[in-house]
Specification:
This protein is an alpha+beta fold. The chain has 4 helices and 8 strands, in the order ββααβββββαβα. The protein has a single domain, classed as endopeptidase domain like (from Nostoc punctiforme) (endopeptidase fold (from Nostoc punctiforme)). Strand 1 and strand 2 form a beta hairpin.
Length: 134
């Protein structure tokens, strides 16, 4: 919440400017939880998804085909970095947001560690396969 007023900057992860996922990355980092960088990775990092009716402060909420993320700040509100030309702010969850809602996650260190292992497995080169020739 103390980052409100800082401008949106695409790819931003600092007080010079934040994009939506960069803001979430730094907020959870301050709480000792390491998140992946992008909205898609942040959503995928947790197998347990939270429904609209079960949202609690601290939950990450995803919208518009995972194109945007915010954090529930209090019931019915989220803090986020909306888009170019805007700033980090708290906003009431509108009916429009509900129609664009994809899902939510409740980050925890265990979930992120599991995601990191999946990413590592995906990026580790496969062992060379020995082939025989005739």
């Amino acid at each position: 919440m103390n980052r409100r007023g800082i401008p949106y900057v695409w790819g931003g992860t600092s007080d010079s400017g934040y994009d939506c996922s960069g803001l979430m990355l730094r907020a959870y980092e301050a709480a000792g939880i390491e998140l992946p960088r992008t909205t898609t990775e942040q959503y995928a990092a947790f197998s347990r998804k939270i429904s609209w009716d079960q949202l609690k402060p601290g939950d990450l909420v995803f919208f518009s085909d995972l194109g945007h993320v915010g954090m529930i700040s209090k019931p019915g509100y989220m803090v986020h970095s909306p888009h170019s030309g805007d700033v980090v702010k708290e906003e009431k969850l509108s009916d429009w947001r509900r129609t664009a809602f994809v899902g939510a996650v409740r980050p925890d260190p265990k979930g992120v560690r599991q995601w990191a292992k999946v990413v590592e497995e995906r990026t580790t080169p496969a062992d060379a396969i020995v082939t025989a020739t005739l």
